Amino acid sequence: xxxxxxxxxxxxxxxxxxxxxxxxxxxxxxxxxxxxxxxxxxxxxxxxxxxxxxxxxxxxxxxxxxxxxxxxxxxxxxxxxxxxxxxxxxxxxxxxxxxxxxxxxxxxxxxxxxxxxxxxxxxxxxxxxxxxxxxxxxxxxxxxxxxxxxxxxxxxxxxxxxxxxxxxxxxxxxxx
Length: 176
Fold this sequence. Notes:
Order of helices and strands: HHEEHHHHH
Number of strands: 2
Number of domains: 2
Strand order of the largest sheet: 1-2
Helix content: 55-70%
Largest sheet: 2 strands, antiparallel
Number of helices: 7
Radius of gyration: 23 Å
Structural class: mainly alpha
Distance between the termini: 21 Å
């Protein structure tokens, strides 16, 4: 038997779907790009195999939330360029103002002021969630699906152990 990564690929697909579903339930869905662009890597060391998920840092900010004191906005600071405001403007243009950049700038500053007072998520953002939650999307997706994830992992190791045993037997048969 040749060991394939079929179960790992199936697990990756399943995880993406579980994460995307929770992302949407918590009301974060715009394009789904944050979840679709998660990159999975397999690390093997000292007899342990790990599936590492890497994503844009924004996904972790949504997972954990951001305290008001840590919102990167200082009203009246005179800063001419802000990646935070630029990102909020882009979001507002796509999701709120229908591409109107003048209105998007106004909306971006309104969001920034609100987040600077309340943190992220803001109290008003909970209305977009069907779960009543706006943080913990990764943890919730994993917890809700732990049995299915465990089955994928067990199946992978069954195949792995079968392949290893066949390899050992084949080597020993050839040696006799």
